[in-house]
Amino acid sequence: MESSSADSSPTRSWGLKEQRTVYLRWFYLADDDADGRLTGKDALKFFAMSKLSREDLKQVWAIADSKRQGYLGFAEFMTAMQLVSLAQAGQDISQDTLAHADLASLQPPTMEGLEKKLKKSAAHKSSSDLTAYHPVQTSLSANWFNSKSGKKIAMKSVTSIIDGLKKAYIEKLRPLEKTYQYNDFVSPLLTSSDFDAKPMIMLLGQYSTGKTTFIKHLLKTGYPGSHIGPEPTTDRFVVVTTGPDERCIPGNTIAVQADMPYSGLSAFGTAFLSKFECSQMPHPLLDHISFVDTPGVLSGEKQRTQRSYDFTGVTSWFAAKSDLILLLFDPHKLDISDEFKRVIGSLRGHDDKIRIVLNKADQVDAQQLMRVYGALLWSLGKVLNTPEVMRVYIGSFNDKPIRETAAGPLGSELFVREQEDLLSDLNDIPKKACDRRINEFVKRARSAKVHAHIVGHLKNQMPALMGKAKAQQKLLETLDEQFAKVQKEMHLPPGDFPSVDEYRDTLSAYNFDRFERLHTKMVKDVDDMLAYHIPDLLKQFRNPYE
């Protein structure tokens, strides 16, 4: 019976480089449309040659597609093949087995009939095709956003969950947002880079609570342009992300780069963009996650008036884009200033992303730490309007050894465990990134639908001829009552409605008479998208062996 394993003899050297060459040929064969993505349909045919059971292949796919994207890129395909090889050798299919296996010397799996398919493929495709083939995920979905035609996007062009969300946004949600100026009231229109962006972690806190040091601790090195000191050192918003070399890119430049998800920050003007930069460096962690380092929140009303841009507005913008928000405190800075209170208030609607970090905890002894912890929870309880207790990580997140003289042996053990818990939380972020995108997309759709109902309602309340200015003023003054009417008439959840005061401030600059009336078909399209399209999309790109 013909089967294919390594293309080299046993005497020839074998390592990860040789594995990559062999698996590249296999991936090239399996990737029919050469888009760098192996979907479930293609995988079913290719993986069947391993002769593993359906249950085993289900586990292989689940581990390889840990980010739940609905497809395998080349790196994930290599992981899948390594798991298949381990399974054929009688080992358990698990993340733990993979972590402890000697992957460098692991032989490729036996794939029945693969050699014949490779020869057949070689007869139709020249070796130069394989040499030129780079399995980069070259989805054409980025071009969908540039198209001005009203053409529907073919379903065959959708090769991942993210592609499906882009299609749903362009065809269903974006028309509603444009019609009712959602981008002026709530959030700018989305671009392709907003969907494709890596998961992001934002760090917030008062000055000298260890935000920059925390990033340095995770990266095991400082990032370009970082400066650490006891005084307020980070005076700007810095996005730390991956790049081919170490460099800092100014805010005005980064805001106009189409492949970066920061174009929406242009709305905050040059005053902000001059205080914004992107710090790029090659780093394995940054291939999966980006960090946002923020200026220290200072106390006192004077500090707020000195800022030349809307600080809370910027933090709110980043909060919507972030997958995790870390609020850092240290034992000597537990007070929550007026500005910090506003900043935490701007995180409304993102409670599930917030984690509290009590940093520099080894600066106090165990008894003091217990009191500090209680005081922190008491302070937060007055600001965070949630009945649940926020998760607080206690530790000293820097490169220095823990001060056991203050912490004691019990404190040292506690800090190690807390750090492990936090790092575990951070490691899960890339795996949950796709789920988070779906969650944020659904939240946005519900918010846009409520916005359309509000705008349509305000338009309907305007008189046809006389007294328009007076009617508009009355509607603004009774906006909370108008919200209640819309909620009752349309049976909408109160939690989906925006802040009345913030909405009133934005509405005051508009002429209600120029608003569009409610287009029920547009709203129905969004409802159908939420009720049918998104569930069908998840079903289409779930584990193909389920």
Mean pLDDT: 83
Shape: globular
- The CATH class designation of the largest domain is Alpha Beta
What's the domain count?
A: 3
> Judging by the overall fold, what is the CATH architecture of the largest domain?
3-Layer(aba) Sandwich
Main location: membrane
Domain EF-hand: 52-87
Keywords: Calcium, Cell membrane, Endosome, Membrane, Metal-binding, Nucleotide-binding
GO molecular function, one term: GTP binding
What's the SSE blueprint?
Layout: E1 3-4, H1 16-30, E2 38-39, H2 40-47, H3 54-64, E3 71-72, H4 74-88, H5 95-100, E4 111-112, H6 114-124, H7 127-132, H8 141-144, H9 161-179, H10 182-185, H11 192-196, E5 200-205, H12 211-219, E6 237-242, E7 247-250, H13 251-254, H14 269-273, E8 276-281, E9 290-293, H15 301-306, H16 311-321, E10 324-329, H17 338-345, E11 354-358, H18 366-383, E12 392-394, H19 404-460, H20 468-477, H21 479-490, H22 500-507, H23 520-540
Parallel strand pairs: 5-9, 5-10, 6-8, 10-11, 11-12
Antiparallel strand pairs: 1-4, 2-3, 6-9, 7-8
Helix pairs in contact: 1-4, 3-4, 9-19, 9-23, 19-21, 19-23
